[in-house]
User: What shape does this take?
Amino acid sequence: MDRNTEYRQELLQGYKQMAMPFLRYLPWFESNAGKPGSSYYQGAEFTENTLRFPVYDSTLLSFVREASKSPLMDRNYSYIYTRNRIKTHDDERRIIESADLKDWDLLRGILSKYVLGGMTKGVLWSQAVQENIFYLILKQMQKIFEYWDKPLDIG
Assistant: This one.
């Protein structure tokens, strides 16, 4: 029994090391819940035939930049989606909210879809903010840490 506790604590410490730098973004994601994380640039000479491109919030870009280089990313996130039959935002939210320590890879997979997928399909970053995906994942990670260890002091 003691070996299980030691193993769980080792896992938890590794997961904490991966996720703690990103928990500082929780207040921003909470305050921007339901809002798009971007707007479209419209210059002075904007017409209906002008190409529009998104302008992302600097906090969102900072989060994405850091997350994309972190060990939280799982480049095989598409397998998580097919294996768990995740098709909609509601499926993602349901899985995130019920995730526990054993489901860490599910959380990483969903996060990776939006961070890494957004590198080629930029609308994913805005969707993740608007659909609360980034917020819910970070909040669930925090809950897991606090359940299995102790309350975190996130300032």
About this structure: DSSP finds eight helices and two strands in the chain. The chain has a mean pLDDT of 88.
